[in-house]
């Protein structure tokens, strides 16, 4: 045979194999598309589509079984709104092929065990719900499902583990019962009642101290703020009184009852929840947000389901799942929310707005970026201009009316959202309706809200525009013109100490001198702290700091770029004159004095100084709590600066922790000297071990291999950073305790009520620090309890700490 013929034969065989592979991939893609799209709107009925798809999958079962198993087991988790559709499909396949049904049940059990082991709690909950729904389709026996429930009940009753773990197992059962409750009621009523009794006993005994820290409002008027387990328990009890009949879940398997009832059922194996470990993170509890009831909705429209009706839970959960799937694309999210099935049976706009605000106000933090909810609400107003803007305006009015009892964290989010929303609608609002806030104290929540909104709007617009957008009567609440206050250019500024040196330094800086030349000039300034008779040298020169900081920042006040350039060029001067914390606090006072009328610029400058290590985090914290900042203490921008300071410290510690962990992994993966020796008898085994090391642990080309000494130095840096982090939290909480305790004592002495607006704001900010940084603060909880939050502390202050402790207890 000639070489040409051999080559032709090879090419023909290669093309044939490639065509076969391509055809197989095409069929697999088609099957995946058919499974994923089942239940979508088509001209055919869902029942006929399910029958046809079941026949197609049955025909391809032998060839593509593993592919079909994988897709069918993932779909109910990725698209939980189609739970009953997929359970019906699997039920039809089980009726045709009992072995496949058994393999599918085994697959779901493996997925559940893996989800529980890996801490994928939402996936595990949805798997439990899907397995429960498979009982309705005669795939799984009711008795074996009850065994699964019993194992979850046992996990919820376990002692010596965090309550958040036990709460999750209880929540997983409660949220599955609406799907299978009726079936269990008809076939296993006594067992169902036994499980309900166990749940009731657990809920009666559990600790609910954490609820106060998670509430959006601190009162239950007009709508109760219920903890999530208490709420779903009330809804399930209401469902039980209705004999487990709900009116929301679409159940396509009812149309195939004659087929499914003939199928053989499978028993679930014994599923034991994995034991608790110290590193396991469980979902935090939350409070169910309520803003509307049926009286807020139009009388001519559909009724809003009651707070304790299970339909309310099912609809809200479905809306939350839509947010989860489409949160990265605001237009698609808005479209899917408005395309909600059965939208004609509920006041959809009201429920969408309530769900989005519940996400925005979720404590301790929203699931997604705050601005994403604002973007979605804007898109909803564009898509539904006839109703959505009116519902959103009504919601805003309700929130404003209840703002007196809103917690500080949600207050800040409300301010940010409302100002952003106004900026997208030309700042139009019925300001005349809120004029009552003008007669209130400046620290009253309503007056504070309007003032903070104006300040945020200024960041999103410009001073003249903000002044024009509101009636003139609001002028007391409007922010001042955002410009630097350079006292040396004000009337009488020439007579201030250091005025001559300011002029000289200004002329020098315009010539772009070196840092050494600037330092030489300011070091000539007299030190007002120096005592002629004293032998000790003062820790810093406040006049030198004042002259240098104010002059440099004033010259750079044209833009952030000018300011950053000055900070970078004269970084060494800052480090020289501000060597200690007292000097850094003095410098921050001068920054504030210059930018007191421009909070945004002030925050950016402080952030830049932290990044460049001109100031330390502890100095910023002490400056915020100093008497100089007392007039600004209740303003939101102060707490923005404190939180960015804490976050910067937390990120620094997290980065060092990762570096140490990576270095340790590389060190373990590195070959020892004996393994690299040519005459080592175990050299081949060492080579084999090195080949099994994952790529991420293997140093890249040109990357230095860490040594034990290097890792030890990195660990020392980490320990120092963790010590700084703990010290920062101790300073913050100690200063909170000091000012709150002083306030309470002063009020008791004067015979006044301590529960003033200032006190409420300060306690709210203390709670905000606990909640915003709960993961980091938790590491030092024992230290805080021992040193600061002792039993002799005022109970009003101590309650905030106890609520934080209960969050993960």
Describe the protein in words.
- The structure is a single chain.
- The chain has helices at 3-37, 46-59, 61-78, 83-96, 98-118, 121-136, 142-157, 163-187, 189-205, 211-214, 228-241, 257-260, 310-326, 330-338, 348-360, 370-383, 388-401, 408-423, 445-460, 463-469, 499-509, 515-522, 542-555, 560-569, 571-577, 581-595, 599-611, 617-624, 636-669, 673-676, 683-691, 708-750, 757-772, 774-777, 781-787, 795-806.
- The termini are far apart.
- With 809 residues, the protein is an all-alpha fold.
- Among the domains are: 23-261, Alpha Horseshoe (Serine Threonine Protein Phosphatase 5, Tetratricopeptide repeat), CATH 1.25.40.180; 298-477, Serine Threonine Protein Phosphatase 5, Tetratricopeptide repeat, CATH 1.25.40.180.
- Mean pLDDT is 90; it is low at 673-698.
- Helix 5 (98-118) packs antiparallel against helix 6 (121-136), helix 8 packs antiparallel against helix 9 (189-205) and helix 23 packs across helix 26.
- The protein has 36 helices and no strands.
Features of this protein?
809 residues; mainly alpha; Serine Threonine Protein Phosphatase 5, Tetratricopeptide repeat; 36 helices; mRNA processing; mRNA binding; Nuclear cap-binding protein subunit 1; MIF4G-like_typ-2; mRNA splicing
């Amino acid at each position: 045979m000639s070489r040409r013929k051999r080559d032709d034969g090879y090419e023909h065989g290669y093309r044939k194999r490639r065509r076969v592979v391509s055809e197989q991939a095409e069929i697999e893609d088609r099957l995946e598309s058919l499974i994923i799209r089942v239940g979508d709107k088509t001209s055919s009925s869902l029942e006929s589509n399910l029958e046809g798809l079941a026949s197609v999958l049955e025909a391809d079962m032998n060839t593509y079984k593993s592919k079909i198993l994988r897709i069918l087991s993932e779909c109910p988790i990725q698209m939980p709104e189609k739970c009953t559709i997929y359970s019906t499909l699997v039920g039809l396949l089980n009726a045709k092929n009992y072995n496949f049904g058994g393999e599918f049940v085994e697959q779901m059990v493996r997925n559940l065990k893996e989800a529980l082991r890996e801490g994928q709690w939402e996936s595990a909950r949805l798997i439990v719900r899907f397995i429960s729904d498979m009982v309705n389709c005669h795939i799984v026996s009711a008795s074996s499902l009850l065994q699964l429930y019993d194992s979850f009940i046992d996990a919820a009753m376990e002692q010596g583990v965090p309550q958040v773990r036990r709460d999750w197992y209880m929540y997983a059962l409660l949220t599955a019962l609406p799907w299978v409750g009726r079936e269990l009621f008809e076939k296993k009523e006594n067992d169902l009642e036994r499980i309900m009794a166990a749940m009731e006993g657990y809920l009666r005994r559990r600790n609910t101290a954490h609820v106060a820290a998670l509430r959006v409002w601190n009162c239950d008027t007009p709508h109760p703020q219920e903890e999530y387990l208490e709420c779903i328990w009330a809804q399930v009890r209401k469902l039980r009184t209705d004999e487990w009949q709900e009116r929301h879940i679409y159940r396509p398997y009812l149309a195939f009852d004659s087929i499914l009832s003939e199928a053989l059922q499978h028993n679930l194996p014994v599923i034991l929840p994995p034991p608790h470990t110290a590193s396991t993170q469980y979902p935090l509890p939350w409070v169910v947000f309520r803003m509307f009831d049926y009286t807020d909705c139009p009388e001519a429209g559909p009724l809003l389901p009651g707070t304790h009706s299970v339909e309310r839970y099912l609809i809200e959960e479905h809306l939350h799942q839509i947010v989860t799937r489409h949160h990265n694309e605001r237009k698609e999210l808005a479209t899917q929310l408005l395309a909600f099935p059965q939208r004609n049976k509920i006041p959809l706009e009201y429920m969408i707005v309530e769900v989005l605000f519940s996400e925005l106000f979720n404590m301790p933090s929203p699931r997604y970026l705050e601005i994403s909810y604002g973007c979605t609400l804007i898109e909803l107003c564009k898509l539904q201009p006839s109703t959505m803007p009116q519902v959103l305006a009504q919601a805003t009015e309700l929130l404003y009316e209840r703002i007196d009892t809103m917690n500080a964290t949600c207050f800040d989010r409300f301010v940010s959202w409302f100002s952003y929303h106004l900026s997208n609608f030309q700042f139009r609002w019925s300001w005349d309706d809120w004029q009552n806030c003008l007669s209130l104290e400046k620290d009253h929540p309503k007056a504070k809200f309007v003032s903070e909104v104006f300040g945020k709007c200024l960041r999103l617009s410009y001073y003249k525009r903000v002044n024009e957008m509101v009636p003139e009567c609001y002028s007391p609440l409007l922010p001042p013109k955002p410009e630097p206050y350079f006292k040396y250019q004000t009337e009488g500024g020439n007579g201030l100490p250091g005025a001559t040196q300011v002029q000289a330094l200004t002329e020098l800086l315009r010539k772009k001198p070196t840092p050494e030349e600037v330092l030489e000039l300011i070091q000539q300034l007299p030190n007002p702290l120096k005592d002629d008779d004293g032998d000790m040298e003062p820790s810093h020169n406040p006049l030198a700091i004042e002259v240098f900081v104010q002059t440099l920042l004033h010259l750079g006040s044209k833009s952030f770029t000018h300011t950053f350039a000055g900070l970078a060029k004269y970084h060494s001067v800052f480090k020289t004159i501000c060597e200690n914390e007292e000097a850094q606090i003095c410098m921050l006072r001068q920054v504030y004095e210059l930018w007191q009328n421009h909070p945004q610029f002030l925050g950016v400058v402080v952030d830049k100084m932290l990044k460049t290590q001109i100031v330390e985090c502890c100095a910023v914290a002490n400056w915020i709590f100093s008497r100089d900042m007392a007039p600004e203490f209740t303003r939101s921008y102060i707490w923005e600066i404190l939180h960015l300071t804490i976050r910067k410290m937390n990120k620094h510690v997290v980065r060092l922790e990762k570096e140490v962990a990576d270095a340790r992994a590389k060190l373990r993966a590195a070959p020892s000297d004996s393994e690299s020796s040519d005459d080592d008898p175990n050299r081949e085994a060492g080579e084999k071990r090195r080949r099994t090391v994952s790529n991420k642990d293997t140093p890249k080309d040109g990357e230095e291999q860490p040594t034990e000494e290097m890792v030890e130095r990195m660990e020392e840096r980490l320990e120092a950073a963790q010590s700084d982090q703990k010290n920062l939290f101790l300073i913050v909480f100690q200063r909170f305790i000091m000012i709150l305790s002083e306030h309470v004592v002063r009020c008791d002495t004067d015979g006044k009520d301590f529960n003033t607006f200032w006190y409420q704001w300060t306690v709210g900010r203390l709670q905000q620090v606990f909640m915003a940084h709960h993961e980091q603060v938790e590491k030092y909880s024992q230290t805080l309890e021992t040193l600061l939050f002792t039993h002799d502390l005022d109970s009003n202050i101590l309650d905030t700490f106890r609520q934080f402790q209960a969050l993960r207890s």
